[in-house]
Each structure stands twice: as structure tokens, then as C-alpha cells.
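Below: protein 1.
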Amino acid sequence: MGHMKKYRCPVCAVTDNVVGFGRRKKVLRYFCKACHKHFSVDPCFLDTKTILSDHLDGLSFRDLSRRYHLSPMKAWRICEEELKKLPNNNQFTFNYCSLFSNTFVFDGKYFNLAGKDHDWVFLWGIDYFRHDIPVFLVAPSESYQSWSKLFFYLRVINHYPELIVCDDNTNLKMAARKSFPAVKIQTCFNHFKENIRRDLKVRSDEAYKPFMRRIEAVLHDKQSDEAMNRLLFSLYEDYQKDPVAVSILTNIERYRSELTGYRRIPGSPVTNNIMEGLNSHLESRLAGLCSFQSLSYARLWFNGYVLKRRFTSFTDCRGKFRSLNGKRGVDLTKKPGVDLPSLFLIVINRF
């Protein structure tokens, strides 16, 4: 004859005085005769790693509760416990990864934090050629101090990029030059042109549209100094009596070194489109979560999100990155002879 499994009372921590008290659907109810308290036990197995994976894919606790027949609070407890088991991403990089390329793309993504009067920002960067994400930071703003702290993490893992691609963020650029004195900065062509469009109001005013089209030709793709000088001088000859156009051309010349930072680094980008794609993907995940209830949980979630990306194989890389399909970012940067731990279930990449 079988015996009923004994459960420990969560209040007084005894088992001898615990007796069965019925059930509610699949949940078993118990009563402790010592402290006169009731408690419930769910004997059904829950795949907590799958629950966490769905949460990192953007399912809220309410959605998880409907999918797995849990209470939202239990879904939160499961996700929090699983997230706490994961290593810190920046420390993980220090322990296991070192083979990063010379080109990085950086950007920030703002997110909502309940109880705060302003959005916080998730600062991160990707190895352009190997698509790995070594470090990140959750910060109150994109200040010089915040970017300096992120770049400090790169210095801790002993990596000094030769080229950093970013939008026209002064704080980021100043922090990068302070942390890596020899680094080159490449300002994203798309962001630079968008700033000019906004200054000229070309979407609502026809006056400078022909001028803007010629600016776009200058900043369309990589070209030599000779070709760029020829196009800019032609613009100056045609618009030298227009103070607005001259100020735009002067600004381009002032940014010349940042608009040609890609030179002598084969295959380097002139836009931060790769980060725009990552931010768009992250935005779709954050939309389902609406907001984070605490800063500590936000840090846990972003840490899990980054680690999951690093441990998921690429399936949709195109062009010069087609060779990355079937590989994981963390595999491309791990130290020689190091065995990586298994942090997530093996899944098909949905990124």
C-alpha cells in the first residue's frame, strides 16, 4: 500500500502534523494541526526555463498565467527565481569571452519604469562583425557618466575598439574618446542627414529639397576625399550666397573626421542600422511588458534578455553576414579552450 507524500508546513516547518484538506482543480490543499494554518501545493511539473523564455520574448505575467494556468504572482516568482540563477552578463563576458573584433556599434533604448517621473535607458553595444553583446548598462539617462561606466566595462574585459559607430550623441563620443584615446568615431550617416532635414524643414517646405538631395548624394556611401571635396565644392559654388546652406556645408566640414571614421577599417559600417534593428526587436518585447515595477527587476530582465540573445543561433543573417547563420554570438567570441555553460534551452532563433 502506498503512502501519501509528506509536505512541510511553510509556517511552522513541521511535517508530522500536516493532513490532507482536499483539492482545488490540480492544486492540493493541506492543513497543519500544529499551527492551524492552511497551505496549497501544486504537484504538477512546470518547465520554468520555458516560462522564462516566453517572458523574455515579451509575454507579461498575465499572459504567462493564462498560458500555463498559473496565478500572475506565481509566474512572477518563477521568472524572478530563474533570472536570479543567470550569471551577470558583464561578468560572464569577463570569464568566458575575449575574441571581439575592432568595430562596435552603440546606442541606447529608453524604457518605462513604474513610479519614476522619467524613462530609464538601456545602454548597449554590439560587436559589428561577430554580433555578440559583451556589456550593457541600465542607467537613468544617456549622460557622460553613464556612457563612461559602460566603456569602463569594456576596459575591464581588456578590449579597446578601433572604431565606434553611433548617432550624433555628444556624451557618448566624449566618453568614448576619454576611455579609448586612439578610437575613431563614425557618426551614422542616416542620423546626420536626418538632423539636416529637420533643420531645413524639408518635409514641410519645398525650398531646400534640391539642396537636400545633393547633400544625400554626398553622404550616400563611402567615397574618397577627392570625390567628397568635388561634390561639396560644387554645392558651395551654387549656394554660397545662401547663409543657411553655407552653415550646413560648414557643419559637414566640421564633422568631416567623424563622417570618414570608417577609412582604413575594411568592411566597417557608416550607419548604426544594426543597432536600430536590435532596438526595434527590443521594443517589440517591451511593448508586451508595458513597464517594469522595480529597477532591480528591470536589470534582471535585461540581463536575461542579453544572455538569451547571445546563446541563440542566428538564422536570418544576410549579405556579408550570411556565414553567421547557425552560429551563436557567444561562440564567435569565447576564449580558446573554454567550455561555455548551458544557460538556456536550445531554441531556434526568432531574432
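Below: protein 2.
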Amino acid sequence: MRGIITAAVCAVVASASFAQQDPQFTQYMFDRLSINPAVAGTTGQLCGTLLLRQQWSGFDGAPRTALLNAHMPIKRISSGVGISVFLDELGQQKSTFARFSYSFHRKLGAGTLGIGLSAGMVSHTLGNDWEATDPVASDEAIPANGNSDMGWDVGGGLYYVSPTLWLGISSTHLTEVELANVSIQTRRHWFVQGGYDWAIKGDKKYVLQPSFLVKNDGESTQLDVTGTFLYNNMVWLGVSYRTEDAIAPLIGYQFKPNPKSMVRIGYSYDVTTSQLKNYSSGSHEIMLNYCVLIVKPPDVQIYRNVRFL
């Protein structure tokens, strides 16, 4: 299997592929910031999210991805800031994305509109741990000693959120930077995401949460559609479908350690529906999210009276 993975990776690198380059997550509804900087601070809380994904279990060199992001509001200037860091590994290729996000907020109806920009760095490294039997070991387009390159990365987006609705449109890799040392050129990606919380018969104990994510890299489009059921604001179950790729059940639990904070833990398992199902046992993903309400300390005034010094 290693030969298959390494050959696939090198074919991508050598041809400067324009395929989907941003890591994907099944639990995208808990990670809106990394693809849309306008999300930063719109929750009104300090939030941090960790996502770990092992894709295509059963392959040597299969994709492994870690994402850590955090964001918070700056209410004094009606804004929010955030940071996202991806670590992605596929065979001999290792990629790192680091983005700082800024969002300007405006009240719109019952919700908040965010207008955001992100800036950061993208880095790709190609290793040299080839086996003699790998079909790419003698490919002159692949550096024998490995190589790496990095460049600037810029993105932007719009995001609207209300107590029951969220909707966003965004783009990453606007600069389409060329990393000549590893024969990769980033391709501009577009995202449309949204979701809705529907309290069944008005009872917030039973909430249905449909959501979607559309991804486009200029040549192909992929759609994720998900439905989750949240019971008693505590446990959720759901299923997600990604076109031409996978069906994934989801499960999660959330609780409040105190009235001002929330902890969420989620797990999903992708059942592969493409031709890879003959080789892979599926993909695992774990999500951990923590949010806390930032409360400004009261401004204590001291009053002195000349009668009581």
C-alpha cells in the first residue's frame, strides 16, 4: 500500500496539482473559523477548538491532520480576532498552514454580520524516505534529498449568525502562491457554509440541526450535508454525507462546567463510498471544543467624603 500512497503523492507534487488542498473535516460545523475569518469573535465568547483526523485507515502514509484554532471578540471596537493552525501529513508530504484572522462586526436584525480577512503562511515539505521499490524513487522531478518551500497566504469572507441561523461565504489562498521548490501552486478555494437550529414544536429540549458545506477549487465542487439531533442541550447524534466520498455517523456530548462556559466532545467515522472502500476501513475524527463567556470586571468607584476621612 505504501507504493500506492507515495506514487499518488508524488504524482500530485510533480504536476503542481490544483486539486482540493485544504484539509477537510466531517465535523465542519464546529470549525467555521479556519475557512472563514469573518467568524472570529461572533460567538461573543473566547472559544478554542481541536480537531484530529486519521483518514483512510489501512493505508501506509494515509493523511493525518490536526487543527487548532481560537478566537475571541473585542467588543470595544466591534471586532474579533482569531488564529488557526493546520498540521497535515500525507505520505512524504507535510503541510503547515498558519492564519491570523480579523473580523469587523455589525448588528443586522436579530444577528451579527462579520466581515473578515486572514493572513498567514503556508508551507509544504517533501521528504526523502523512499524505498527502492517505490515507482517514484528514480523520478528526476522529485528531489532526492527532499525539499521545502513557504509563502504568504491570504483569505477573506462574510459571515452572518443569529440565535438560530448561521451562513457564510469565504475564500482561502487568494494569492495563489507558487512554491517552486516543491512544484506546488496553491489554488484559490471557495466555501459556502450554513446551518439552522430547529426546536421541534418549539421545545428546545429536542433540536434538529441541519447544516451544509460547499467546497470549490475552481475545477471541482464537493458538498457536505449533515443532520444532527441535539437532545436536552447535552447529547447529539447525526449523520453526514460527502458527495463521491463518504457517509459518516456522528456522536457528541456537551456540558457546562459552570454557567459561563461550555465543553463539547465529538466523534465521527467516515464510511468510504468511493473506490477506496476496497482498501480503506474508513476515517476517524475527534473534536474538542471549549467556549467561555468573557465578563468585564465591574468598574468599582471609590467615593471619599470629607466628613469620613
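The chain has one domain: 2-294.
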